[in-house]
Amino acid sequence: MKKSVFLGALTLAGLAAGTAMAQDSSTLAAVKERGMLKCGVNPGTPGFAAPDASGKFVGFDVDVCRAVAAAVLGDSEAVEYTPLTSAVRFTALASGEVDMLARNTTWTFSRDVDLKNTFVGVNYYDGQGFMVPKDLGVSSAKELGGATVCIETGTTTELNLADYFRVNNMEYEPVPVESFTEAQTQFLAGACDVYTTDASALAASRASFENPEGYVVLPEIISKEPLGPLVRHGDDNWGDIVRWSLNAMIAAEEYGVTSANAAEMANGTDNPEINRLLGVEGELGAMLGLDNAWALNIITQVGNYGESFEKNIGENTPVGLARGLNAQWTEGGLIYSPPFR
Amino acid sequence: MSHSTQSLAYVRKEMIEQQPAPRSQVGFTRWARENLFSGWFNTLLTLVSLFVIYKMLAATLPWVFGGVWNAESLDQCRTILNERYGDTHYACWAVIRERWNQLLYGFYPESQYWRANLAFVLMLASLAPVLFDKLPRKMLYLTMAFPFLLVWLVWGGTIWGVLSVAVGFVLAGVAFKIVDRFGSMALSAIAAVVVAVVWWLFIGPSVVDGLNSVAPLGHLQEVQSRDLGGFMICVIIGISGIALSLPIGIVLALGRQSDLFIVKTICVGFIEFIRGVPLITLLFTASLLLNYFLPPGTTFDLTLRVIIMVTLFSSAYMAEVIRGGLAALPKGQYEAADALGLDYWKSQRLIIMPQALKISIPGIVNTFIGLFKDTTLVMFIGIYDMLGLSNAIRANAAWNGIYWELFIFIGLVFWICCFAMSRYSQWLERKLRTDHR
Description:
The complex is a heterodimer of chains A (341) and B (437).
Chain A: H1 2-20, H2 27-34, E1 37-41, E2 50-51, E3 57-58, H3 60-73, E4 79-83, H4 89-95, E5 100-106, H5 109-113, E6 117-119, E7 124-126, E8 128-133, E9 147-152, H6 156-167, E10 172-177, H7 180-188, E11 194-198, H8 199-207, E12 215-217, E13 225-232, H9 236-254, H10 262-265, H11 272-277, H12 284-288, H13 294-301, H14 305-312
Parallel strand pairs in A: 1-4, 1-5, 9-10, 9-11
Antiparallel strand pairs in A: 2-3, 5-13, 6-13, 7-13, 8-11, 8-12
Helix pairs in contact in A: 3-9, 3-13, 9-13
Chain B: H1 27-35, H2 40-65, H3 74-85, H4 94-105, H5 113-131, H6 139-155, H7 160-182, H8 185-214, H9 230-256, H10 261-275, H11 279-293, H12 302-328, H13 331-339, H14 344-374, H15 386-394, H16 404-432
Helix pairs in contact in B: 4-9, 4-15, 5-6, 6-7, 7-8, 9-10, 9-12, 9-14, 10-12, 11-12, 12-14, 13-14, 14-16
């Protein structure tokens, strides 16, 4: 009897909640009504997303969430972070548990098309690399024939590894591990000769070793791993907002707009593109259904792409990543925003 | 047969003083002889075991006690250890020192820790009269009030919200009493539910809003479910699951043995369904898939969802444990209850259940301990329990690469809780043992 009571109460609660809530399916309206952006992030990757000592999420991916919140709600702190494992991230996005994902997710054909997601851009161009102990005396991935390799199961890196060794006609012995943590411990304990994952994670991992000089990251990058934020299919306007929030950060770096000088530049500059970006000219914000100061809010509260990079994962941080492919296109990288026009 | 005393060489004239038993027959020596060195094979085994224990302690104790407590990062720990010992094979307890509050309270605001502490003390106080029957029965009022106090203290807000929920229960009880005079048990139960639901859904919320605007009594800073974590979330989920799953389990176990076809079918179906599905699946459903079934825009507190799922899961197991106790009772007990003219509920309450539950104590506590440890599974749905926090702490550049210290701390906390539960159940078994052995 108790159970039927409970189920009845649950049903009634659900029905009541259903009738009470406005049946508005637009994500933008839902976010505005809630006053909070629900953003799916990695539960803990150094530099990209992790809670700090006070429980506040910080990181390079987190900054994308904060940028969208700043654009939509005018407050970069109005974000509810949902830490998601790689296994559940797409389900959480599809079910509406989160409004967007910024969780170092590789943009692939099947994830985009088959899983019905919209990748709105790339905020970090990564690639799979190898790390070996220096004592192994290996200087190129081509010399890894016969090695034991620590590899996280069920990831794209596992498939890339198999492809790479097959193409190069080499044998290897996989040591399957479940997580980043396990991989690190196994590798340090000498259970495998080689640890392979995204190059950014390798660098972060190596930086935490007791003796980083004893390990080298091999020069070969064997796969393309464009990591970017994504939204679910079915709400193109919302996708546009996330896409252009990211683009605003990228464009701001290109035009030299920083968190320090954005407010001053918002009084008007000689560059019409900056003026449009900051809402001095044109009605770009209104076209997105946002306030015209949306991009200004992003840049003053979060900073431009370069600032976010340097603060979280740049060369002066423990993660210590060089810009490399992630430099602006004007400086030989791939980071490129379509024009604000 | 005549012989004089002269023919005897020696006759003792007085009793000798009682002597202590030979040293080899008392105390540790005897115990050691009997238990450790009672034969060449056992002696060998003892020596080998002692050697293994010595090796283990020699390897771990310096690591544990030589550890560093004052450091800001793993690197600093290693520097200190290198200066002190010349190598780094020692613990870095500094991570516990810096983050212990996070491991225990999650991201609960630091200025509000007193609320969590108070709730914990109240929890112990309200559990005490349930666990020990020597304590004054009046303390049970605290036990009844505790769920509401817990919600108010932990999540904050004004006191009116939880009071309104409590009023719903009171109204349900009143309705039950009134209808019970006229109709059957089932009818009064239905009346109670209807009254409570009507209050909770339609009248209560507006009353609460009104009271909140007029007199925001006992307003505490609100804390979001996302900020709960660490050991605290394990205790909240564990204790709610334990408290709710026992009564639900009893009802399910009785339902499964019922002669009423529909009741029986529902109970069997529920139990077998839940037992056939892993807990992690239920948790995934609660955290990710529930949104598919609820109207868009609905928010349903994540902690509440998890508590519901964990409770459903453990009540199915509990039902089977209690069914085992029921099955172990001799049929004569049921017949005796019938012969006394007791009705179904009375015979269950007075005769069957006290005996069945006593038999099931080990199984029940087993389920409780399992449930408590299963609360760490919430890590996979994005709640930062202690294990989740250990990952989060590692994701911080300062502590990246630290494992054992965190896991040992977490293991210790769980061990203390589970060991206490196990000891209590053994004490209870001894206390309730009425047979002659």
